[in-house]
Amino acid sequence: MNALAATNRNFRHAARILGLDSKLEKSLMIPFREIKVECTIPKDDGTLVSYVGFRVQHDNARGPMKGGIRYHPEVDHDEVNALAQLMTWKTAVADIPYGGAKGGIGCTPRDLSKSELERLTRVFTQKIHDLIGIHTDVPAPDMGTNAQTMAWMLDEYSKFHGHSPAVVTGKPIDLGGSLGRDAATGRGVVFATEALLAEHGQSIKDLKFVIQGFGNVGSWAAKLIHERGGKIVAVSDITGAIKNSNGIDIPSLLAHKEETGTLKSFGGGDVMDPEELLVYDCDVIIPCALGGVLNKDNAAEVKAKFIIEAANHPTDPEADEILSKKGVVILPDIYANAGGVTVSYFEWVQNIQGFMWDEEKVNHELQKYMTRAFGNIKSMCKTHNCNLRMGAFTLGVNRVARATLLRGWEA
Ligand SMILES: NC(=O)c1ccc[n+]([C@@H]2O[C@H](COP(=O)([O-])OP(=O)(O)OC[C@H]3O[C@@H](n4cnc5c(N)ncnc54)[C@H](O)[C@@H]3O)[C@@H](O)[C@H]2O)c1
Predict the structure, then answer these.
(1) 208 φ, ψ to 5°?
(2) Which of 127, 188, 304, 405 could be 37's S-S partner, Cβ–Cβ 3.0 to 4.6 Å?
(3) Which reaction does it catalyse (predicted)?
(4) pLDDT value at position 5?
């Protein structure tokens, strides 16, 4: 099922549980604005190439729209729409004063040089600068983008609007980025995992983990789980997958990846078929890469008891049903990976106030937000007798619906 159909299905299910008015339901699903731009740049060899860029602004009832910018070949209209909608529910679940948006460019960043990536980012920013802003829509990094991408966006935006550090988050520290933002999504995933496991009388140090994706989110989650004594038995990225049933030495793997750019040649584990990763023997799977990776083709074979959705929409609705019947507990994306947007919010607050926090305060506040949101989700699960995904969706949708009604939406 495509990402948008899956997201709409979850939203409609939550709207039904909440007994939402059908007109309001329809209105909340329709995005506020969809932007599509052609970004034409000269390549280093002098030839011209054009890429399609998107920014979908889904909803702003609770505050400025907020969401990442993704550079990936599979970026398309439906995917960006789905991710923008998920951001609306995610910021509401985290209870931060934002709406939802998402953007992206359909490209393969690994095939572009640094100067080509810079030109592409600047052209994209030139085309959307009038439609984003500190109190309108605040981009951040996502798959295929990073702090450097945000630095270029900030610089290009500031040429039109004056120095505006709060217009993007996930910036380098030297340009007003927040301490702790780089690790925030992975750290939030670990706080969320701890909250869930505590409910089940378990703890990270006693369990075996599988992590798909070893970029920003996956590598931070792996590092922090390793520090807490959890055993990571398999890891993959775009270059391949490795396994070690005794536990992978994560600091060594990070150093190896830094040095060689690949996981495959790592001596501290055996190469495995990436297809096997999600059905490998473990207690917890943490998908940290693409959407739709748990689907009807592999769900029945999953051995894990817990799935922590660090990636966005990694579980197809068909897989959701199969896994639920097997008793697998799924911690949904709109909560599990909300640590990134939460610390983005802290970064924006610090930029607006012109007063920067130390890292201890950032991490402490993040833990407070993640723990509080878990409690709020569990209350919704109890009230509506539903699973964690619907607990999170009903929490987020209800908050956005309340804000929409208070503002008045039919006039
Ligand atoms: N960065 C954030 O703050 C943030 C916040 C919330 C959610 N997310 C979500 O987390 C996921 C990862 O984001 P990121 O920022 O870590 O991206 P990233 O670009 O830093 O890393 C992505 C990782 O996925 C790997 N990957 C790509 N295709 C793969 C495949 N077919 N099989 C296995 N691995 C593959 C890449 O090699 C890389 O290791 C995305 O779904 C993103 O939307 C990120």
Answers:
(1) -105, 135
(2) 127
(3) L-glutamate + NAD(+) + H2O = 2-oxoglutarate + NH4(+) + NADH + H(+); L-glutamate + NADP(+) + H2O = 2-oxoglutarate + NH4(+) + NADPH + H(+)
(4) 93
